Amino acid sequence: MGRLEGYAALVTGGGKGIGRAVVDRFVAEGADVGVLVRSESDAKKLIDQHGRSVVPILGDVRNWKDNQRAVKAVIDRFGKLDTLIPNAGIYDFSDKFEDISGVDLTEKYRQFFDVNVLGYLLAARAGLEALKESQGSIIFTLSSSSFFAGGGGTLYVSSKHALIGTVKQLAFELAPEIRVNAVAPGGTRTGLGGLPGDKRELTEIAGFEAMVSKAIPLGFLSEPEDHAGLYVTLANKQDSRFVTSEIIRSDGGIEVRGGGRRNKQEKKEKK
Ligand SMILES: NC(=O)c1ccc[n+]([C@@H]2O[C@H](COP(=O)([O-])OP(=O)(O)OC[C@H]3O[C@@H](n4cnc5c(N)ncnc54)[C@H](O)[C@@H]3O)[C@@H](O)[C@H]2O)c1
Q1: Nearest atom within ligand 1 for CA of residue 18
Q2: Which residue's CA is the nearest one to ligand 1's atom 18?
Q3: Average pLDDT of 164-172?
Q4: Does 2 fall in a domain?
Q5: Phi and psi dihedrals of 37, rounded to 5?
Q6: Is residue 246 part of a domain?
Q7: What is the pLDDT of residues 212-231, one digit of tens each?
Q8: Residue nearest to atom 15 of ligand 1 (CA)
Q9: Which residue among 4, 96, 107, 142 is the one 20 to 30 A from 32 at the CA level?
Q10: What's the CA gap between 22 and 10, in Å, rounded?
Q11: Is residue 257 part of a domain?
């Protein structure tokens, strides 16, 4: 028996990266999953791997109607919605604040916050009634950039910080019917991209893996699969019955960076 047997979930941005790893793990644990994706090829790959356990919905998280369609598709196919995972996001590649002109700032701010914050709110709003009915939960993907500076630029870091307030306020307003929690990954090997037209991808940043590995006590860049089990635990209605407004960090211990024994070991080896 999987830990999510009989559950129905919806993951946004689940065609790739962390979202895709969550979809794969949820299906392995017995869940049926709707997946909001941007491309036909991601939709096809999901169906090729998971068949009727998934229902891909092509759409854009910034669009209210696409979020509504995604929730409806899950209910039409699986009869209910137990777990909603707003996860789709974009990155700013640590672009420096002083390099964004005042003229460009308004538009860039809107673009980042539309995907990273509004996209989460629209998904949550679209899923509300169904989640109330199932006594379900929302699990947002946050980031180590929800807590710390330096892992992105001002627009990324501020948009991810805004999500802490989102988790807390929704946990407050939607209790007791809906639990609201989050997983906050640190550096993860994915193709996380930027604004439309920006061809950069996270793991193509020169020295990215070395930089992340060095900055955290556990000393490695995580894989998307490393976070997926935490979503399972938060989704599970028995294991997390008493858990709401919780943000589980899955970031290699970035808060205690400095690296304790590992750095001492490295220094010893250098001598
Ligand atoms: N990779 C990391 O190091 C890292 C660390 C912390 C948090 N995160 C967060 O994890 C989440 C997933 O990112 P990832 O690293 O797996 O990257 P990813 O690029 O593999 O996944 C992001 C997904 O979101 C989708 N997406 C982007 N804009 C969208 C839109 N407007 N409408 C619909 N879908 C859209 C993309 O198509 C993609 O499938 C993001 O919220 C990101 O901020 C990533």
Answers
A1: 16
A2: 192
A3: 98
A4: no
A5: -125, 160
A6: yes
A7: 999 999 999 999 999 999 99
A8: 192
A9: 142
A10: 10
A11: yes
> Which of 141, 192, 200 has the most ligand 1 atoms within 8 A of CB, as the residue to mutate?
192
% of the chain residues with pLDDT over 70? 96
Q: Per the structure, how many domains does the chain have?
A: 1
Q: Is the CB of 22 under 6 A from ligand 1?
A: no
Half-sphere exposure in the Cβ direction for 145 (13 Å, CA): 23
Expressed as residue numbers, the domain containing 109 is: 8-270
Q: Which of these ranges, 174-183, 201-210, 233-242, has the smallest mean pLDDT?
A: 201-210
User: What is the CB-side half-sphere exposure of residue 15 using CA atoms within 13 A?
Assistant: 18
**What helix, strand, coil percent values describe the chain, rounded to 5?**
50, 15, 35
Q: Ligand 1 mean position to 263 CA, how many Å?
A: 31
Query: In this structure, what CATH number is given to the domain that contains residue 70?
Result: 3.40.50.720
**What pLDDT is recorded for position 260?**
55
Tell me, yes or no, if 109 is annotated catalytic: no
Q: Is the CB of 221 under 6 A from ligand 1?
A: no
